[in-house]
Amino acid sequence: MSFSRNFCISLAAVVLGNLIYFLIMPHLPPAAQHRSLHILPDLGLLVDFWICLVLYGLIAFLFRPHEGQRPPTEQRR
Known about the structure:
Layout: H1 3-24, H2 43-62
């Protein structure tokens, strides 16, 4: 996987994941809501991270190269 492709997938996962988390945060139990002024990490950060991680896997799966397709650096002989 190239650096730019991996960066784009990571960026999309983090932006979409945070958007989803902050949209559903008011509906989460108080323990799963992020508290921005706390020094220690809270459960809300873990929930946000999990959403981003799931989105990264989903995006990487949906935009994976097709099987049988050679990477662009290889040339046919």
